[in-house]
Design brief:
Nucleotidyltransferase, domain 5, 7 strands, two-stranded antiparallel sheet, alpha/beta, single chain
Amino acid sequence: MFVHPTDPALARVQVGIDAAVVADHHVTIRSTLSDGQVQLSRFHVPPTIAGLSRLGERLSVFPGVVAVAEPTSMTWLGLHVALQRAGCDLSLVGTRHSARLRGAISGKLKSDVIDADVLSLASDVFALSPLDPPLPAELALRRAVVRRGKLVIDGNRARRRLISLARWAFPDVWTAFAGSWPTAIAVLTRWPDLRALAAARRSSVTAVVAAHTRGVPGVAERAGAIRVAAAAWVEFWDGRLDLEALAWETAEHLRDITIASEQIERATTQAQRYWAGLYGDDPLLLSLPGMGPMTAPTIRAFLGDGTRFVSAKAAASYAGLTPSTWSSGTVVQPSRAITKEGPAVLRLAFYQAANGARRVDPQLAAYYQHLMVERGHCHTQATVAVARKLVERTWTVLTRGQPYQFRDATGQAVTRTVAKDQARHDHAVPDDVRARARARSAATHRSKLTK
């Protein structure tokens, strides 16, 4: 919203921009006159230098106005530069928030013009603030960790596709791998055709299994079981399944996994290079439990030094790890599912860090134990709760500039070694509790299939 300093007839100006990636940016200027009348001015500009210059010229007559847009891809960066050069600013509203607002205003109708109109009204509903973009080096780090997060998801999907194929096409062979992923990849890479695997020399299969299995007895027996299982499935599928086509499909899945692994490795290296360039060895962040070279770059990419957040709770809210709340009349439902607002890669990084932190920090381990044993949470729920606490502790460490101090359950300072020992022995979750939580989670998932 913008109040014109010299035109008394113009009470305020609101600007909404429906940013586009391959089409034009659609812009709505909503001018409210002093007598209450509303005037709408709509236009569109291409996302080119000429288009952004034209946008700046149109808005330069409203110096200080804060336009509202959605964070569509990276289009917000060019818009921000153009608006700042015109003496204006930009504020971003989340896509889910704008979608809810559009639904309330226009129902099921949607178009670029409607989106721009809705965004021009966002300041009436949401508390917006001008965009504070990261520095170029910080933005490079953020984009690298986001790309790595997407590649990890793609890689996991490739792994699941191979597992799904193996589970129906040759499940006994997959079982004979005894849960060893390196063994499975090595054996199937060398013998993707079940006929070749069944006919392979036992010594050859044993050598491959031994090379990818460490400290596990019975390597020769495992290799023999793999060959026997392959031969059984060759006989089973005889005349029913094209084994050559199955071998091709297996090889393609293996190739997808290899490509994904190489891409993840390159993205990881690049992210760590950006991270080291900004924060060096980063002893401050790495002093926290659960932090390592995989999670730390992601957390730094979005939290920085922590000063952009006014409190620890604000940082946890940004990560989307705070419980949502629902109330209506006398009915109140606090502590519902987490909001999942903010970057998904940041939330995953804190979840992974929390899963390690609850094993080495006595206080976090005690909290995890309490949720599992006394509150009946499953592992995922308890770990998410630990992740929220870890976000708050991370913000405290970053803003104070002091390394993390491990403390026992009573609050007494302890060394990292003592802390790990206490977390492992004093706050362990009994096996029967874990089994009960797993059974309840499985029952919940099964019940959803019948609803």
